[in-house]
Design goal:
Blueprint (H helix, E strand, L loop, with lengths): L1 H30 L8 E5 L1 E24 L4 E6 L6 E2 L4 E5 L2 H36 L5 H34 L1 E3 L4 E6 L6 E2 L7 E19 L11 E6 L2 E20 L2 E11 L10 E18 L1 H4 L4 H4 L14 E8 L2 E12 L3 E6 L6 E6 L6
Antiparallel strand pairs: 1-17, 2-9, 2-13, 3-5, 3-8, 4-7, 5-6, 7-9, 9-12, 10-11, 10-13, 11-12, 13-16, 14-15, 15-16
Helix pairs in contact: 2-3
């Protein structure tokens, strides 16, 4: 008996389901003549301009930053430049204690002068012996010895001169100068500090060359990099001046990619004018690049391409399924004389809000953007 009761319940549930489906179908059929445009949100085909913008973020940096170091060790005697100072090429930034370096230079200079004196003496001796040899008053061995002594003294002069030049250069290195004209953005030393150049050149200053011209190093995804070309205009904003829009121009697309969160990114260099000095190194820029434009074209809301009829709406459509849609085509739906009518359109440029319609729609036609399910009146 329990098995029979279960079987009866299944039969009852099946009958109920069939009745509900039949009622639903009858309800849709009965409402077919009552569906109207009020059930749909419509979007009109308009005419205007479209632009596809590539967005990116990047860091503002000087075009050229020079690190100023020292090739000699010593105690910092004076610091003559500070943060944000504008400096000229060759201007003295700092002085190291040069007393020891000066003594080394003077010693090597003395050795150089002594070597030159010995060379002069050896030359005179060689010329004297050579004349005696020509008069057959001395042996060839004496001439050879005098010649060798003269050549050795000449070589010693060259060696002493090199030592002097090195010590002189080291003495000059104690005066730290700026290699370029620009602005001091980093200072790593203080008066009395000892700097050691034994293993690597220590950084004393960083000088940014001409802060009136800077650049943005922006990261652009591989999906958008194909749109980017040199000389394209770009606009950007920074958090420090949220209401200001700044302008730049693409100078370079670097070919070396990086990967961020499994997305391949390319660095795009954007030149910017910073004559106002409002933009500072290290600021984050939110960049917009107009990659493509379409002017005076037909367009419709991109939401129209997202709308797909539900099963209930499809029941009211007396059309065959559209096949063979090309890659640059899509289907939109119109409301005509109480019926839902599909229309194939050829797409163009999209700015993610609107999309260009190259073929398939006319100005002022209306397409379905959203629809409510048909309901009984």
């Amino acid at each position: 008996m329990p098995k029979k009761k279960k079987l009866n319940k299944k039969i009852i549930y099946t009958l109920i389901a069939i009745m509900l489906i039949a009622l639903g179908y009858w309800a849709l059929k009965s409402n077919k003549s009552h569906i109207d445009q009020a059930h749909f949100e419509m979007g009109k085909v308009t005419k205007g301009n479209l632009a596809y913008e590539v967005t990116a973020t990047g860091t503002i940096n000087p075009i050229n930053t020079v690190t100023v170091g020292t090739q000699v060790s010593g105690i910092v005697e004076k610091v003559l430049a500070d943060y944000n100072d504008d400096v000229k090429e060759g201007q003295v930034l700092a002085l190291l204690d040069s007393s020891t370096l000066k003594e080394q230079m003077e010693k090597s200079e003395a050795n150089y002068e002594l070597a030159k004196a010995k060379e002069s003496k050896a030359k005179l001796n060689y010329e004297r012996i050579k004349k005696l040899y020509q008069d057959k008053l001395t042996s060839s061995a004496s001439l050879e010895d005098a010649e060798i002594e003269y050549k050795e003294s000449s070589a010693n002069v060259l060696s002493a001169k090199a030592d002097y030049n090195i010590s002189k250069k080291n003495f000059e290195y104690a005066t730290i100068t700026s290699p370029v004209s620009g602005t001091v953005i980093t200072k790593e030393i203080e008066q009395g500090q000892t700097v050691a150049a034994s293993f690597s050149t220590p950084t004393l200053f960083e000088v940014a060359e001409d802060l009136s011209k800077m650049q943005i190093e922006a990261s652009v995804s591989e999906a958008d990099i194909g749109y980017i070309k040199p000389d394209m205009p770009a606009t950007f904003t920074v958090d420090a001046y949220p209401n200001d829009k700044f302008f730049g121009k693409i100078r370079q697309v670097r070919l070396s990619p990086t990967e961020e969160s499994n997305v391949v990114m390319y660095t795009v260099i954007i030149e910017i004018d910073n004559s106002s000095r409002k933009l500072l190194p290290g600021m984050t820029a939110s960049v917009n690049i107009i990659a493509e434009e379409a002017k005076d074209v037909l367009m419709v809301s991109a939401m129209a391409l997202q709308y797909k009829p539900s099963a209930a709406v499809k029941a009211l459509m007396d059309v065959k399924k559209i096949k063979d849609i090309a890659e640059n085509q899509d289907v939109v739906y119109l409301f005509e004389k109480g019926k839902i009518v599909p229309r194939v359109i050829t797409k163009g440029l999209s700015d993610m809000t609107n999309i260009e319609v190259k073929e398939g729609l006319s100005l002022d036609e209306e397409v379905i953007i959203e629809a409510n399910e048909p309901r009984k009146r």
